[in-house]
Amino acid sequence: MPAVTDRTLVVGEALVDLTRDSGGHESAHPGGSPLNVAVGLARLGLPTVLAAQVGDDEYGELLRDHVDASDVDLRSLPPHHGDSAVAVAQLDDHGVATYHFELTWDPSEMPGPAGFALLHVGSIGAALRPGADAVERLVEEAVAAGVPVSYDPNVRPAITPDLSDVRERVDRIVPRAAFVKLSDADAAELRPDLDPAAYAARIAGEGPRLVALTRGGDGATLYSGGESVEVAPPPITVADTIGAGDSFMAALLAGILVRGWTERPAFDEEALTWLGELAVHASAVTCSRPGADPPHLKELPELLA
User: Fold this and answer.
1) Which of 22, 200, 214, 219 could be cross-linked to 232 through a Cys-Cys bond (beta carbons 3.0 to 4.6 Å apart)?
2) Weakest mean pLDDT among 191-195, 209-213, 286-290
3) pTM for the complete prediction?
4) Who's near 60: CB < 8 A, 6+ residues apart?
5) What helix, strand, coil percent values describe the chain, rounded to 5?
């Protein structure tokens, strides 16, 4: 694998998933979509900085230990909060999670994007006020500095119930982003009047060079420059789906970075297929074990090809 020395900046929430299964058992796992993406990138050998708000409580220690173990450079954003963010993930009998959140997202400072190979934003961090406003300003700063932006809206109605505000933010960020990933559930929330595939194809024509639409166990479709490719996931036994989309995102970005494609204007069928298969493999690995536990490089040998 070619050495990638330029760092990726990931900005957004870091939280602890308190997972409760259908039998009432509870366990704590580090999580938050941006944190998961940062860990996923670092485990795949990409130098990664995570800018987030982390408390100094027991959960904060768990989060710091987790990102340290994967060599993620954690930048704690002011102001300081003693309590770390928490998401309660309730699993049904099929391992599918629904969430309840307890968090504050109000960073007063952001690291500058200049000098980074890529800026990734999304999820709660790009939707929850007041921090979402700071994230939008950071995206604008990145675009002005020539730093490509990656975006995953990862819509969470439980914490951002004003979907009109979320839609407006998505509509502002998408044209500025080079790479966008969203799930079919995200698409249904954002544009219930459109088929998810139609919505993904539409936003692919609004500025992004690559759009990926994930459909859970049905795989994903990637769009670029009028081209689209469908990829199917490998067969697995699902432990749960926590962090699956984040592992997809991390592997997709890792593939783009490793191949030196951050400035590529469009992706042909061969490139889309390689990226899509890499990403669904990463997602499947995560689904095969409990919690948001993205794969290491040795588990994605195709990234070395």
Assistant:
1) 219
2) 286-290
3) 0.93
4) 54, 84
5) 40, 20, 40
